[in-house]
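Example record

The entry below shows one chain as it appears in the dataset: sequence first, then structure tokens.
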Amino acid sequence: MIVGITGTLAAGKGTIADFLKEKGFKHYSVRDFLTEEIRKRGMPIDRNSMVFVGNDLRARNGPSYIVEQLYSKAIQEGNNSIIESIRCPGEVEALRKKGTFVLFAVDADPEIRYLRIAERASQTDKVSYEEFLEQERKEMTNLDPNKQNISKCIEMADHLFKNEWTVEELQKKVASVLGNIGNGSEKFTRPTWDEYFMDIAETVAKRATCDRGRSGCVIAKNKQILVTGYVGSPKGLPHCDEVGHQMEEWIHSDGIKRMHCVRTTHAEQNAICQAAKLGIPIEGATIYCKMVPCQVCAKMIVNTGIKRVVCEKIYHAGGETGKLFQQAGIQLEVLNHEIENYEGQ
């Protein structure tokens, strides 16, 4: 089992980690990993350096780079493990794919937490209360997947501990959760609405008729599905799965030549056409799809008045689409920041 620990500064992450170590868990810390890297770079060991180096490593190597390194060490050890100080949503997403993973989050009122750092007086904690609040503000919310977003990580947690208790009380709470996990009575966690609609989009994709990319999409508003669509040839025409692909070469803006199947209509296009055919208004809705839409689909999405796009992965040609959505005031969210090297439908 891998237990990840996230939370605000001085909320009690270390206390939980120490308790788990007593239970036989091997301890790995993002903070320790960053401290070692900071020393290599000859930088001062303070919170600003922690944030800068962490963001730099993630930007260079991917959102989950640090925890991937720690996870590799944990697997080599083969024991139950803790990965402490998770701060990036991409790290949580990566660890969720690694088998048995549980995310603990811990928080407390800022006044209580500042008193705690004043008492421990570590090298990175020597700041005024105003500096403490400002540093935390910078770390709490960030739309860049390579940077820290502690509030989002807390939101993604399986268990949240509001640590305004004594050490002993916090340990009892953690022990209770561990007991439930260990005896198989772990409380079922309902998916978020985004996860719910994305799961449905994956089911819709099973109707797709082009094996180069069986993708589907869902358009929803006010927590209700309005319409769905999947990749397939225009109505009444032969499908790729039946007669093969109709390939054409195209040159992306990066100058690289790629092959593209032009027989099919994309999932987003089919869903939008279906809504128009049935007279279903989709203005202000959210569209859920496998990858960041191509530019043709993106232009259709802009013209429909859809205001939010949620994708599972980044499409290799999706950079221009992101700029287009930004200009149009459309919110783009990607659940998994891996790049899909798929050549297109």
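Notes for this example: The two ends are 39 Å apart (CA to CA). The first strand starts at residue 2 and ends at 7.
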